[in-house]
Structure formats: C-alpha cells, structure tokens
Amino acid sequence: MKIALISENSQAAKNSIINDALTSVASQYGHEVFNYGMYSAEDDAQLTYVMNGLLAGILLNSKAVDFVVTGCGTGMGSMLACNAMPGVFCGLVIDPTDAFLFNRINDGNAMSMPYAKGFGWAAELNLQDCYHKLFAEEGGIGYPTERAEIMAKNRSILSQVKGAACHDMLSVLKGVDQDLLKSTIAGEKFAEYFYPNSQDDEISNYLRSL
Q1: pLDDT per residue over 32-75, tens digit each?
Q2: How many CB atoms lie within 10 A of CB 29?
Q3: Which of 57, 61, 122, 186 yields a CA-CA distance of 20 to 30 A from 87?
Q4: φ and ψ at 101, to 5 degrees?
Q5: Where does 27-142 have alpha helices with state H?
Q6: Which residues have C-beta within 8 Å of that of residue 42, sequence separation ≥ 6?
Q7: Mapping DSSP to helix (H, G, I), strand (E, B) and coil, where does residue 113 land?
Q8: CA angle in degrees (0–180, nearest 5) for 71-137-152
C-alpha cells in the first residue's frame, strides 16, 4: 500500500516526528510512505488544513496513493476538508482505539490526527500505536465481527450517497480557486511523487497544465 503523509502549516515543525513514526510502522507491514510535506514551518509552499483536504482528494482519486495520513491542531479541520472531497472517507483518530475501530468498522482511506491538542510527552509512541492498530489488520472486518456484514452494507450505502452528493474530482479541480489549487500542488516533492504514481491521466494532465 502507498501512504501519503500531509502536514499543514501550523504543525509543520512536527512533520519529521510524524514521518519517522509512520515510516517505522508502515514498513513493518510492507507499506511505502510518501511525505508530501510540509517539511518545516519555513517551507515556501504553505499548506492550510483546507489544502490538506484538496491534496488528499487529488492523491486518492488519482490512485497515486491508497491511504492518506494528515492532521492539524485538533485534527478536525483536516478531517472536514478531506471529507468534502469525492471518494475520500476520513476518520478523526486520537488514540489507538479510534484507529482500531475506524479500520475495522469504517474501512476509510484517510485519517486525521490532532498534532497540537494533547500532543505532549511520548506523543510519538501514541502515533506508533495508532498506526499499528490501523495497518496491522485488513480493513472492514467489523467490530464486533458478527456485525461485519451490516457494517459493509452501510459503507456501501455511504459511498453511494457521497457519490450522489459530490462532483467528480476533475470537476472539483476545475471549479476551485485556481490559485488555491496551484498552491496546493506547489510542494517541493509533489511532482516527483505524484506524476509517476498517478493512475488518472485526466487529473495528471490538468494539474500539469497549471
């Protein structure tokens, strides 16, 4: 599985802590991490939590990655921005129990975490524990397991509802403020990571045209 890490400007100084924790766990399960930044608070390309969501939508809808790890001060802004995008199902994960239940019940493709609120002593251990709970098992196996079938049905219904409520990603890209979009993909390693991995030529070509 390909996993993207996206950090926004208010918590960019913690990117290396988060990336180290994520990479150390993901590698144990054979997953590859692509750190899309921000890498420091002084980066030329600045990401807000709104841009986190837009970038998550680009990466997941193009199938450049399979899962997105993001967050902000509380985790809520990035979660809301991600869930505004077509095809993105993002959960708020604060502790390992959240990660365990989100994976088993919701089987989403993105998670948002708080990197200011409650981020104190041994925070990196909580990150690692959350990632283990998220990636150790196949998603969607249910909790309790006897409810797995009804949970899968509800996920399918939610996907259908979201599909009806949202535009396709290319329409989103054409409809959003184009300066915002350009800033969203201005990261130092965006082109290096995105274009070789994108599986959607229409999205790739549109972004190249900018």
Answers
A1: 999 999 999 999 999 999 999 999 999 999 999 999 999 999 99
A2: 14
A3: 186
A4: -75, -40
A5: 49-61, 76-83, 96-101, 123-135
A6: none
A7: strand
A8: 85
